[in-house]
């Protein structure tokens, strides 16, 4: 075995190839609905969060964006009427991004095709046992490399 035959390199390569391939498949349905990949990620995270809102800092932590990057995405989605900002009543420094009815409608329009794509190109290729193991494995890795990925997912005492 040479240095280049290391199974760790194979694991990273396969993960990168799978991600790239899945992203390409999903991109088609997103763009047909007038959304970029990050628009979809932002809207789905808001829709699946308590109260359908997240603090801007938590939204940045959950996505692959910096704070300024998430601000630009939310600004654009706000101009399109898909997201609104809400000020925090108890802390003027904090603001929330919340999905609007138009955002929910847009997301609802793309979700049937997105779920079909997921079934065709991802989950449908695995047995229920394989999927369960895979999800548990991904959570272990995600929690190690992105500990803030679920920031704001639970309701806090203040809101």
TrEMBL record:
Molecular function GO terms recorded: DNA binding
Occurrences of domain HTH marR-type (ranges): 5-143
InterPro entries: HTH_MarR-typ, MarR/SlyA-like, WH-like_DNA-bd_sf, WH_DNA-bd_sf
PROSITE patterns cross-referenced by the UniProt entry: HTH_MARR_2
SUPFAM superfamilies to which the protein is assigned, alphabetical: Winged helix' DNA-binding domain (SSF46785)
Superkingdom of origin: Bacteria
Annotated keywords: DNA-binding
DNA-binding as UniProt keyword: yes
Pfam families registered for this protein in UniProt: MarR_2
Protein name stated in the entry: DNA-binding MarR family transcriptional regulator
Organism encoding this protein: Streptosporangium brasiliense
């Amino acid at each position: 075995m040479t240095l280049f035959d290391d199974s760790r390199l194979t694991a990273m390569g396969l993960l990168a190839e799978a991600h790239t391939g899945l992203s390409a498949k999903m991109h088609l349905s997103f763009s047909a609905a007038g959304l970029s990949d990050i628009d979809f990620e932002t809207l789905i995270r808001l829709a699946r969060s308590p109260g359908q809102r997240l603090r801007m800092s938590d939204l940045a932590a959950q996505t692959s964006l910096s704070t300024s990057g998430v601000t630009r995405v939310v600004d654009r989605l706000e101009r399109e009427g898909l997201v609104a900002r809400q000020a925090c009543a108890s802390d003027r420094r904090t603001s929330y991004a919340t999905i609007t009815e138009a955002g929910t409608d847009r997301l609802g329009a793309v979700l049937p095709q997105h779920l079909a794509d997921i079934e065709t190109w991802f989950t449908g290729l695995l047995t229920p046992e394989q999927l369960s193991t895979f999800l548990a494995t991904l959570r272990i890795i995600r929690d190690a490399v992105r500990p803030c990925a679920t920031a704001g997912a639970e309701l806090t005492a203040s809101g």
